[in-house]
TrEMBL record:
The keyword Transmembrane does not apply. This is Polysaccharide deacetylase family protein. GO terms for cellular component: membrane. It comes from Pseudoalteromonas maricaloris. Pfam families: Polysacc_deac_1. Residues 215-331 form the NodB homology domain. Keywords: Hydrolase, Metal-binding, Signal. InterPro entries: Glyco_hydro/deAcase_b/a-brl (IPR011330), NODB_dom (IPR002509), Polysacc_deacetylase_ArnD (IPR050248). It comes from the Bacteria. The keyword Hydrolase applies.
Length: 435
């Protein structure tokens, strides 16, 4: 009380001496914490003059630069009624960073959740939010912001809690969670003490990365040992568009190893597609997962690596798998590709950070250039369009793509600036960026 009184005297002297000619400065009288009516403070009647002085400075000035230092020292406070303080708090929502609300303000306005320990978080909220809530809703919101700050583990940071504090950019317009935004947020933030402004910043970083930093990618893959010659014959076509692909090899022991090596040496990726193209689901259910690995994975993987091939990627024959094969196969490869070839297959990109992806069939009976082009056009940064087929050139069945159609895809993707990626590159898309 003694200090506050002397602070007021200094303020009065400044005012009288004309040092207060800067109209931005607000002189405020001391007030008891939580009391709404400032005129009831014990200023021994000397506040009469001062009150007329401060009337001039008024509320218009209360949010100016100079008032920051005054507000920061909450003892300087007041002359505002409780209603005026509340009005100032409400109007501080979404104001720029020059706005600073003092602990005293929240005490006067009876915001029970705001304390000295979380004041900076609350100030960060005011400077960051774009919501303009009414009093009751704002009080509730700030309590939720404080709750968030007091959490001590990321595992407690549920989407619902983030919804309660009104984080922008985390939910789609239909109210559904943007899972990727959420995942990136969790990656970016510290393990505990979640500050609203930092969370909002992390979500905004994600959207910035997605819209203008992360590359849009395409991975084209060909499957089966039987496709080898047709692929080898068309390497120049890929060079023409500076394009790369992944070739998933089966029956390695029966095909020309030098051609496989050629393909890798020309800048493409060699993957694994089974020793004899076994059906992983049927074979593992009948013989056990370990037997499937021993019979259809390791012998060929060892042989390919002995020959100096870099093999980090696997594609399921027939696109067939089980949860158990998924779990086991990840011990041998960093990337696993499934396969979608149903008649209604929808071409679209998927998150590039996923170790298990789905190649969308562009075999002859599924090929639809318009839809592929649309998928390319709507790709977002950080997404990869995985297109899969088999032989290049007409065969006796439908599992091929004509060179003409393949070139149309390559040309379009190239013209649209997509990055052709090996699976390891697709996944490491964040490292691919220069920012
Ligand atoms: Zn196959």
């Amino acid at each position: 009380m003694k200090y506050r009184y002397s602070a007021w005297i200094v303020a009065l002297l400044l005012s009288v001496s004309g040092c207060n000619s800067d109209s931005k400065t607000v002189i405020e009288l001391p007030v008891e914490g939580g009391q709404g009516d400032n005129t009831s403070t014990d200023n021994n009647g000397t506040n009469t003059d001062n009150s007329s002085d401060t009337d001039n400075s008024d509320k218009d000035n209360s949010n100016t630069d100079d008032s920051d230092s005054d507000n920061a020292n909450s003892n300087n406070h007041v002359k505002e009624t409780k209603e005026e303080v509340i009005k100032r708090i409400l109007s501080a929502q979404g104001a720029d960073s020059t706005t600073s609300l003092a602990l005293k303000d929240f005490e006067i306005a009876e915001f029970g959740c705001v304390t000295a320990a979380n004041l900076s978080v609350i100030q960060g909220y005011f400077n960051t939010t774009q919501d303009e809530l009414q009093l009751a809703a704002l009080k509730h919101r700030l309590c939720k912001v404080v709750e968030l700050f007091e959490l001590d583990s990321k595992s407690l940071l549920t989407p619902n809690r983030l919804k309660e504090v009104g984080l922008r950019g985390l939910f789609f317009e239909d109210g559904k969670l943007d899972q990727w935004a959420y995942d990136e947020l969790i990656l970016a933030i510290p393990e505990s003490h979640f500050e609203y402004a930092a969370l909002q910043g992390a979500v905004e970083d994600f959207h910035h990365n997605q819209s203008s930093v992360w590359p849009k990618q395409i991975n084209i893959s060909f499957d089966d040992g039987g496709a080898l010659n047709s692929i080898h014959d068309h390497l120049d076509l890929f060079d023409k568009y500076n394009a790369t692909f992944t070739y998933y090899v089966s029956h390695y022991s029966t095909i020309d190893h030098s051609k496989v090596a050629d393909i890798e040496n020309r800048g493409h990726e060699i993957g694994h597609h089974g020793v004899i193209h076994r059906h992983a689901k049927i074979y593992s259910e009948e013989n056990g997962v370990q037997k499937w690995i021993a019979d259809d994975i390791t012998p060929q993987l060892d042989a390919m690596r002995r020959d100096g091939l870099t093999v980090t990627s696997y594609a399921y024959p027939f696109g067939a798998y089980t949860k158990e094969t998924d779990r086991e196969i990840k011990k041998y490869f960093t990337h696993v590709r499934k396969f979608a070839s149903w008649s209604s297959v929808i071409y679209r990109g998927e998150r590039s950070d996923r170790p298990i992806t789905t190649g969308l069939s562009m075999d002859s009976h599924r090929f639809d250039l318009d839809k592929i082009q649309n998928a390319i056009d709507t790709l977002k940064g950080g997404e990869t369009l995985y297109l899969a087929t088999h032989v290049i050139g007409k065969t006796g069945n439908e599992w091929y793509i004509t060179p003409e159609n393949l070139e149309k895809v390559l040309a379009y993707a190239s013209a649209k600036g997509l990055k052709f990626c090996h699976t390891s590159e697709c996944m490491n898309f964040k490292g691919n960026t220069t920012n």
